[in-house]
């Protein structure tokens, strides 16, 4: 009887030590990456085209075409209707997050991605002054 109790105690200590060791190894194997701007173009990653910059820099009846070009660069599309010139800026940024983790011989991972599309349409009068604009931002 004493011998059985001794074997049970040894077995219990071994199991506890193994579980503690596995939990330390498992925690050490997990890592988490930050969101990276991935497949988006360099222009989208380094662009001033953000809702904050638009609100800060564009004022109806005040902002000139030259000021817009200085802040946002050349537009992606330019169109003319009657005496109105229209600038369109359209930028897409892609974000990717990769997570991985492991426990002894088991390794698992996941990848998540999202995109942000920003479109700015500026309407200039015959004096090249912004008289109206539209800003759309879509996250998906």
By DSSP (H or I, 4+ residues per run), the number of helices equals: 4
Mean pLDDT: 79
- Largest sheet, described in full? 6 strands, antiparallel
In terms of DSSP E residues, the strand content is 35-45%
Q: How do the SSEs run, as a string of H and E?
A: HEEHHHEEEE
Global Rg: 29 Å
This entry's quaternary arrangement is single chain
Structural class by secondary-structure content:
alpha+beta
Cα(first) to Cα(last) distance is: 67 Å
What is the percent of helical residues? 25-40%
Q: Uncertain segments of ≥5 residues (pLDDT<50)? A: 29-45
Number of structural domains: 1
User: What gross morphology would you assign?
Assistant: rod-shaped
The count of DSSP E runs of length 2 or more, i.e. the number of strands, is: 6
Describe the structure.
It is built from 4 helices and 6 strands, in the order H-E-E-H-H-H-E-E-E-E. Strands 1, 2, 3, 4, 5 and 6 form a 6-stranded antiparallel β-sheet that branches. The protein has 140 residues and is α+β, with helices and mostly antiparallel strands.
Layout of helices and strands:
Elements: H1 2-29, E1 31-32, E2 36-37, H2 42-45, H3 51-57, H4 65-72, E3 77-81, E4 84-103, E5 106-124, E6 130-139
Antiparallel strand pairs: 1-4, 2-4, 3-4, 4-5, 5-6
Key phrases:
rod-shaped, 140 residues, 4 helices, 34% helix, 6-stranded antiparallel beta sheet, alpha+beta, single chain, 6 strands
Task: Describe the structure concisely.
The protein is of the alpha+beta class and about 140 residues long. Helices cover about 35% and strands about 40% of the residues.
């Amino acid at each position: 009887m004493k011998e059985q109790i001794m074997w049970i105690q040894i077995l219990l200590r071994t199991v506890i030590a193994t579980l503690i060791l596995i939990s330390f190894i498992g925690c050490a194997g997990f890592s988490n990456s930050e969101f990276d701007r991935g497949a988006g173009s360099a222009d989208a990653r380094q662009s001033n085209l953000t809702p904050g910059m638009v609100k800060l820099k564009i004022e109806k009846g005040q902002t000139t075409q030259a000021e817009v070009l200085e802040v946002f660069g050349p537009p992606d599309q330019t169109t003319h209707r009657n005496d109105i010139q229209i600038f369109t800026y359209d930028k897409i940024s892609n974000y990717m997050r990769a997570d991985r983790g492991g426990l002894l011989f088991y390794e698992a991972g996941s990848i998540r991605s999202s995109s942000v599309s920003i479109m700015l349409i500026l309407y200039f009068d015959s004096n090249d002054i912004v008289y109206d604009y539209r800003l759309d931002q879509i996250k998906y």
